[in-house]
Amino acid sequence: MNDRDRLSEVYSAALTVFSTFGYKKSTVEEIAAELGLTKGALYQYAINKRDLYEHTVKFGLMNWQNKVFDAVRDEPDVKKQFKDMCIKGFVYLSEDTRLKSVLIKDPSMFPMSFISDPFRDVNNASMDFIKNIIDRGISENKFRKMDAAFVTRFLFSIYKMLIIETYVLEEQDSNIESVIDIITQGFFCSK
């Protein structure tokens, strides 16, 4: 098994334990046992429990991100690509019960502030993907001219809020299609 596959196996096992017990109650011993390793052997993959947690969450976020990117990357219609990206990004988390459980137990992993974001590099890649879709839509005259960087941050903030309210606060099932409709069609009726 190569190093990358082994790291994936370690992070996947850690995600299972963190999703079950949360960060505070999880132990390195439990994660090592999940892998059939000793605690000492597990430390070759992480400096300490916090380091393992952050790498594990990043692993989960990148899996989420890659599933969405792969699902919409080759869509030829930019409007459909934007809508599909929004829906798939939202729905994926409902299907990834381990990552969803970690988010519920530790909503700080998905902060509203861009300044204190511990996963800034992952989220920046997501925002770059969104911005590329917006830029493409503008260049194809499918989207109106706008400040794509500003709109990207704005949309990503709405997305994070929706994720937190739906999955962390468990307010209710969000109607992502209605949110997309409001964003793409606006509030006003046409005359």
Main attributes of the structure:
elongated; 9 helices; 72% helix; mainly alpha; Tetracycline Repressor, domain 2; 191 residues
Helix content range: over 70%
In the CATH scheme, the class would be: Mainly Alpha
Secondary structure tally, helices: 9
Total strand count, please?
0
| H and E string | HHHHHHHHH
Largest sheet: none
What is the total domain count?
1
Strand content: under 5%
Q: What is the mean predicted local confidence, pLDDT?
A: 90
What would CATH call the architecture?
A: Orthogonal Bundle
Question: How many angstroms does the end-to-end distance come to?
Answer: 63 Å
CATH fold name: Tetracycline Repressor, domain 2
CA gyration radius, whole angstroms:
19 Å
The CATH superfamily appears as Tetracycline Repressor, domain 2
Shape: elongated
- Structural class designation: mainly alpha
Low-confidence stretches: none
Structure explained in plain terms:
The chain is built from 9 helices and no strands. With 191 residues, it is an all-alpha fold. It is elongated. Helix 1 crosses helix 6, helix 4 packs antiparallel against helix 5 and helix 5 runs antiparallel to helix 7. It has one domain: Tetracycline Repressor, domain 2 (Orthogonal Bundle). Helices cover 72% and strands 0% of the residues.
